[in-house]
Every structure is written in C-alpha cells, then in structure tokens.
C-alpha cells in the first residue's frame, strides 16, 4: 500500500524547473510527452526566460522640483536609454520612462520607452533607487571635502596645536638676573 504524497506548489514548481533545466533532453521529452525537437525548444525557452539581462543605472541628482529628484541613464543588456526621470513617489523612488512632447495626448507627453514586464520594472526601480542614493552620497562626500573649515574650528585647532608644542618645550632654567649698577 503506497502513501499518497501531497506536494506543495513550491515543490511542484521546483520539480518542473528541474525537468526543464537540469534533466537530460530525452527524459524531458518523455515526461512531457513531446518529441525531442519540442523538448529542445522547451529547454531553450526556459533557459532564455531564466537568463537575467543585466541592468546598470547611472543617476544625475538635481535640486528637487516637486517629486522629480534626478535623471538617469539605463544600460539594459548593452542598450543605453537616456532621460529616465528619477521620481520620489509615495511608495519610494522609481524611474519614470523618458517622454517627448505630444500635443495630441491627454497629458501633453508621449512615453518613448515602455516596459511591459512587471519584474523588469521592479528590477529597474531597485537599481535606480540604489544608484540615486549612491550618487547623493558621492555628492555629499565631495561637498564635505571642499567645504572650508569654519574660523572658530580653525582657531580651536591652532590653539590645541600651540598647547601641544608649548607642553613639549622644556622650561627655561631660572637664574638670578644680573643687575645693572645704576
């Protein structure tokens, strides 16, 4: 008597993934009930779907103008797209698609880039937020590096250094002072 094993949806997905990506093509064809050519196509489609296209984002922060806080360039698998808007929305920082003026549209603008895949848009937003924070940190570090030290701090530092130098000196020997015969 065999026990019925109940698999969770995660286990079923893992098993499906194993057959599509790891099992030999002949076994994949047998399990799916398809020809070898169809199994190869299934494997190829699965591998392509699994392959993540690299996303690199560079951000140019600006003085905030409403919710607009910068502009970005996105390198998506070797294709560079400029003029994404970095927006600080109610749910955090995200990248708005570049657009061009269009007097026939309701908003007066037309997007020049569309991202239909939600997962890609989330990856893009995460990379954009990280790049924005990194760019702001660099700007702050540069500003701190070139900012002159206030006069009060300079005077206090000079006093500390003078105190150290004076403490390091040996005290002059005290002698009787020669008197002039007056």
TrEMBL record:
InterPro entries: SpoVG (IPR007170), SpoVG_sf (IPR036751). It comes from Agathobaculum faecis. Residues 151-182 are annotated as: Disordered. It comes from the Bacteria. This is Septation protein SpoVG family protein. One of its GO terms (biological process) is sporulation resulting in formation of a cellular spore. Transmembrane segments: none annotated.
